């Protein structure tokens, strides 16, 4: 596909986005991962009206790691992601992106621009736009520049879109309106939209909920190709899927706002406390 010719003859977006980095993302302070760690949560607590949704939670994620987070309903998984993305401020404790970026002092926009992308459970693609247009929109994160959406993509941007289409398996569907995609394809498109922002850390909340078995397996393959290039935190209740993507990596079990157990899938699955509170007998 030639995305450059698809929108040729229009003004160059780079001329309209003065001071912005490639793909329309504002330049941000770089994250220092020289210690091999992309995320540090240390003794984080979140208290809502006296209720401890997160209770002294400490967790590190390595650069390029795929970390699965499991745990019963109400364990604090969503609240933890809210802390990481700046939606909720911790009552106490620290949250750092790399060595240097204090997430508790950054706005949600600053955090997104620094390289943390979040995928909520339900797909939120622009249904009336094609797959290609959705990726273009994602590239231009600053919504004020949407009027120049039709602007000609430069070669690098067109290549990036093609690469993302290939990665998420939607190359054949690039002209299709997103509203006509299957549920799984919409989820992959939204992951593709996040990838356009070149996130360093991706937070994915129950990504395979509602997918068919085939879509779930394909999503697992996708995540296995993303790890290494990106760091991923995946919250999921589907244990077969967790086993597919965790492989020998770490799985963290949250319960009542704290880490109950951490280890390989085999280790946590045979942990009596995890069986008791989550997996069942
Ligand atoms: N804004 C809020 N005010 C009060 N309590 C809240 C708030 N947000 C979350 N909680 C409570 O904090 C606890 C943790 O909720 P959270 O949504 O983080 O859990 P979860 O592990 O994501 O659960 P699930 O697997 O069901 O999505 C729950 O008991 C929830 O009711």
Automatic annotation (TrEMBL):
PROSITE patterns: ABC_TRANSPORTER_2 (PS50893). Residues 39-281 form the ABC transporter domain. Keywords: ATP-binding, Nucleotide-binding, Transport. Transmembrane segments: none annotated. The keyword ATP-binding applies. GO terms for cellular component: plasma membrane. Residues 1-28 are annotated as: Disordered. It comes from the Bacteria. One of its GO terms (molecular function) is ATP binding. It holds the Pfam family ABC_tran. This is Urea ABC transporter ATP-binding protein. It comes from Lampropedia cohaerens.
């Amino acid at each position: 596909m030639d995305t450059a010719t698809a929108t040729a003859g229009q003004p160059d977006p780079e001329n309209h986005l003065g001071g912005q980095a490639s793909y329309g993302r504002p330049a941000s302070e770089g994250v220092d991962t020289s210690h091999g760690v992309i995320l540090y949560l240390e003794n984080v607590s979140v208290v809502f009206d006296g209720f401890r949704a997160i209770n002294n939670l400490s967790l590190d994620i390595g650069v390029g790691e795929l970390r699965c987070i499991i745990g019963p309903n109400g364990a604090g998984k969503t609240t933890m992601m809210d802390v990481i993305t700046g939606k909720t401020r911790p009552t106490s404790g620290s949250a750092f992106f790399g060595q240097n970026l204090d997430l508790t002092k950054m706005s949600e926009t600053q955090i997104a621009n620094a390289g943390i992308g979040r995928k909520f459970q339900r797909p939120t693609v622009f249904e009336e736009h094609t797959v290609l247009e959705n990726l273009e929109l994602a590239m231009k994160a600053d919504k004020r520049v949407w009027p120049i959406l039709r602007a000609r993509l430069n070669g690098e941007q067109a290549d990036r879109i093609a690469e993302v289409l290939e990665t998420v398996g939607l190359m054949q569907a690039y002209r299709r309106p997103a509203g006509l995609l299957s549920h799984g394809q919409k989820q992959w498109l939204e992951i593709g939209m996040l990838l356009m922002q070149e996130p360093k850390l991706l937070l994915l909340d129950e990504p395979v909920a509602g997918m068919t078995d085939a879509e779930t397996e394909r999503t697992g393959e996708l995540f296995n190709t993303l790890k290494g290039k990106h760091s991923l935190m995946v919250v999921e209740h589907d244990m077969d899927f967790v086993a597919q993507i965790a492989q020998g990596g770490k799985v963290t079990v949250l319960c009542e706002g704290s880490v109950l157990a951490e280890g390989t899938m085999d280790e946590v699955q045979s942990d009596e406390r995890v069986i008791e509170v989550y997996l069942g007998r």
